[in-house]
Design brief:
heterodimer, A: two-stranded antiparallel sheet, 14 helices, B: Glutaredoxin, five-stranded mixed beta sheet, 16 strands, globular
Chain lengths: ~325, ~500
């Protein structure tokens, strides 16, 4: 019963349904997911609260970009193949259950019939974030980064020793969908309002909502403007005004590959303008966005790729970076 | 055996993640039971990736470690402190570490940033516990007596701000942490949020207790994704343990690439979901801030300094520093510098010491030509002014500012006329557009300096630039327009030769 309640309360269940549908998957629960690189298994139910705390922390800040990999699969040759879907994405609500071999429909019906299936515990260090992973090396890096690992202070997810084949994969940014956008807006708005004291205006959630939409779709679609205006009781002009004020928000899909290059004084002092010119002449197809300070002023010139900070850029390192960003051919 | 590898974004930008995973792999292959703990960075960034090992003498450091050296580290039994070409010795005895006075950054680089156990065993939560014992007015007295001044740049006495908010009567008050660290050359906020996020939460909890706020926001710039995620997880952990207090909760809000949102009123507008346009003051945010409620807006470093002050007493903090600049300042040395990093030192250290002794001069090996102190709105200092001590009043009388204490070093290849023009261009790009001097003046200034560079009526145009600077200083609504003249005028004053007409290329 508790489980049912949790499911009902999960605002993201809607999101998952939409995502699953858009990728040819009918079930709300869990099932297969087709990606250009092959098949993955995904889940769409919510973990009990205390587990969610551990698993979902990062997901709350940025709902996409998680992959759960079991030890065996991680070491197999399959995983880097999935890494080619960039950035990798996971639908926020995640449950890890055994019995993956069953089809989606049997899973659903069996859930109706009896108690929830036994959960597979996933070792903390196997929770891997794969925003930009393209190779085994990227996987290794992701794995050794603690911010992608459930902290020791969090409720522990002890290894059960069971065989599991768990992959939760989606490709982002996902295609624009009004339904999904609407679901995201209401979920994010509810989360922000839960924090605000009574009487504080809902419109204050506009920036988090815009970040969330951009994170999901890669940009803020024109059609999102009236939705946001309606949800926050603002005029469309006010929403547009905010979108245009902040340089982070884009209204068109991002060009790929792209990176942010620091053009502020500390990086200027060590040749960031030279790197900018180099990128422009040698790699004109790469979208180089200018940013002012990435907080890496002692190890410049600096760049940001996704969430990854790159330091001490010189021409060879810039070339290698571009190579890593290129779609694998 | 514990091996410590930083997970700070700066350390990872030069390969700390790769080194950590190489150590895990190598340990597994050799069957050595090594536990890799990811920490913040010690701030000795030229030594990153710096690996540390627990030994009987204390932590021993190796660095900078390349991935291909990991194998040889194991050969040398580094996990027992064995000698290796990369050995640096005991970390706390490293000359540039031992000389520091780490009050705010005492745990950064030492602990697992998200381990409450580590935090507690290293003095964490003592300040908050004492604050609860002392009560609001006694904590206010401590903060006032400590002489702590706002670390965001303006240097306003923190205690007075706190008192103003505490005295305001309102059903709802807020504590807002300004973590929109946009100034080039500064990274202390990021390093602290990634390396010891709990100390910031502790500072915010003390502030909330003292001024009577029930909600807090940390406004972090979007350029710091790692800091955002560490902080969010830190908040989750605190909530789970109910450490924030019964009536206080904190949320992280992420900026969206607007430099001006580091200005406190613009930041509040942004938190309210609006364009980050500066508000006219008064009313002060302390009276009518977020949603019109009394709001305490403090920089990360200000709030993070508070737990030490409350735990150890104002006198312990007051004892450091000079004149009206009390306590320590985490100075960040960057740009073209040999030993770049963060050094927490008492106020009063001279720029020369910081650039030459600590920083070791330029990375390029060429002579130091200029240093910019305090970010893009700070003055460019020539070598002859490097004996200026870092303290609020001394810097001001030398025509500069402390700002967020970022020092950017330039060698003699720098084109100071270009830097002056950049200051205007930056202001033009980042201006919120609310006031005319900043919005129009910055563009006009960039155009005029471009004419000077082309040799078009240089005297007349430079006179116009100076006039523009006066208008910007006197008539801008906030520090962005008001201080843009500082880098421009300092370049004009100290490096006049750079503005001489040149041949067009």
């Amino acid at each position: 019963m508790a489980r049912k309640k949790a499911l009902k309360e999960a605002p993201d269940a809607e999101l998952f349904r939409e995502l699953a549908r858009r990728h040819g998957e009918k079930t709300v629960g869990w099932g297969r997911l087709e990606t250009p690189e092959g098949q993955a298994v995904c889940f769409g139910a919510r973990l009990p609260a205390r587990r969610v705390r551990a698993l979902d922390l990062e997901a709350k800040s940025g709902p996409f970009g998680w992959i759960l990999v079991d030890g065996a699969d991680h070491n197999s040759a399959k995983v880097p193949r999935f890494g080619d879907v960039t950035p990798m994405t996971l639908v926020t609500p995640v449950i890890v259950e055994d019995g993956l071999a069953g089809s989606a429909s049997t899973a659903r019906s069996s859930r109706r019939r009896r108690q929830p299936r036994r959960r597979l515990h996933v070792e903390p260090h196997r929770i891997i974030r794969l925003n930009r992973a393209r190779s085994k090396r990227d996987l290794d890096r992701a794995e050794s980064t603690p911010h992608h690992v459930v902290n020791a202070d969090a409720p522990s997810l002890s290894p059960s020793g069971e065989r599991s084949r768990v992959l939760v994969v989606m490709s982002t940014p996902v295609r624009w969908s009004e339904d999904l956008a609407r679901a995201r807006i209401s979920a994010e708005l509810a989360a922000r309002q839960a924090f605000l004291p009574p009487g504080a205006p809902a419109a204050s959630a506009l920036l988090p909502l815009l970040h969330d939409l951009q994170h999901c779709f890669g940009y803020v679609h024109e059609d999102a403007v009236p939705m946001l205006a309606h949800a926050l009781n603002l005029s469309k002009a006010e929403v547009r005004g905010v979108i245009s004020f902040y340089s982070d928000f884009r209204t068109t899909p991002p060009a790929a590959p792209s990176l942010k290059l620091c053009r502020a004084e500390a990086c200027q002092a060590v040749g960031s303008e030279r790197i900018a010119a180099h990128l422009q002449s040698k790699h004109p197809h790469v979208c180089v966005e200018e940013v002012f300070c990435l907080g890496n002023c002692a190890l410049g010139p600096a760049a940001l790729v996704g969430d990854e900070l790159i330091g001490r850029l010189d021409e060879p390192r810039a070339d290698a970076l571009v190579k890593r960003l290129e779609p694998a051919s | 055996m514990k091996v410590f590898v930083p997970a700070d974004a700066a350390a990872c930008s030069v390969g700390a993640d790769d080194v950590a995973s190489a150590i895990v792999k190598e340990a597994a292959a050799r069957g050595v039971p090594v536990e890799v703990v990811r920490t913040g960075t010690r701030g000795l960034l030229w030594l990153e990736p710096m690996v540390e090992v627990e030994t009987q003498e204390g932590r021993v450091a190796y660095g900078p470690v390349r991935v291909d050296e990991v194998s040889s580290l194991f050969e040398a039994r580094f996990f027992e402190g064995g000698a290796h070409p990369r050995s640096l010795g005991v970390t706390t005895e490293l000359p540039l570490f031992a000389k520091q006075h780490r009050l705010t950054f005492s745990r950064v680089g030492l602990i697992d940033p998200l381990s409450l156990t580590d935090f507690r065993t290293n003095g964490g939560l003592e300040g908050l516990a004492r604050a609860r014992e002392l009560g609001s007015s006694a904590v206010l007295d401590e903060v006032l007596a400590s002489g702590l001044r706002g670390r965001g740049g303006a240097g306003f006495p923190a205690g007075i701000k706190w008192r103003t908010v505490a005295q305001a009567t309102a059903p709802q008050k807020y504590v807002v942490c300004n973590a929109d660290e946009g100034d080039s050359g500064t990274f202390a906020d990021r390093m602290l949020m990634e390396g010891d996020p709990f100390v910031l939460l502790e500072g915010m909890a003390i502030a909330a207790l003292t001024v009577g706020a029930s909600r807090g926001f940390v406004y972090v710039r979007s350029e710091y994704p790692r800091a955002v995620s560490v902080l969010r997880r830190a908040i989750e952990l605190w909530r789970a343990e109910r450490l924030l207090g019964p009536a206080f909760d904190v949320e992280v809000r992420v900026g969206a690439g607007a430099y001006v949102c580091g200005e406190e009123t613009s930041l509040l507008e942004s938190l309210e979901g609006k364009r980050g346009e500066v508000r006219a003051k008064p009313p002060l945010p302390a009276h009518a801030g977020l949603f019109g409620a009394p709001t305490l807006v403090n920089n990360v470093l200000t709030l993070a300094a508070v737990p030490f002050i409350v735990a150890e007493g104002a006198a312990a903090y007051q004892a450091q520093g000079v004149a009206k600049s009390r306590g320590t300042m985490p100075v960040q040395v960057g740009g073209n510098v040999k030993r770049g990093g963060l050094f927490e030192v008492p106020f009063g250290v001279t720029l020369r010491e910081l650039v030459m002794d600590w920083g070791g001069g330029t990375a390029s090996g060429r002579p130091v030509h200029a240093v910019q102190v305090g970010g893009p709105l700070g003055a460019y200092f020539p070598v002859k002014l490097l004996d200026t001590p870092l303290d609020y009043e001394a810097m001001a009388s030398a025509g500069g500012l402390v700002g967020h204490a970022g020092i950017v070093v330039f060698d003699d290849t720098v084109d100071m006329a270009r830097q002056a023009a950049f200051a205007f261009e930056f202001c033009a790009k980042e201006s919120c557009g609310k006031c005319t001097p900043c919005r129009i003046g910055s563009t006009r200034g960039a155009e005029t300096l471009a004419q000077v560079a082309r040799g078009l009526e240089p005297e007349k145009n430079l006179a116009l630039v100076k006039e523009l600077c006066t208008v910007l200083t006197d008539a801008s609504l906030c520090a962005l327009g008001g201080l843009t003249p500082m880098p421009v005028m300092s370049a004009l004053t100290h490096f006049p030769a750079a503005f001489a007409p040149r041949s067009t290329s």
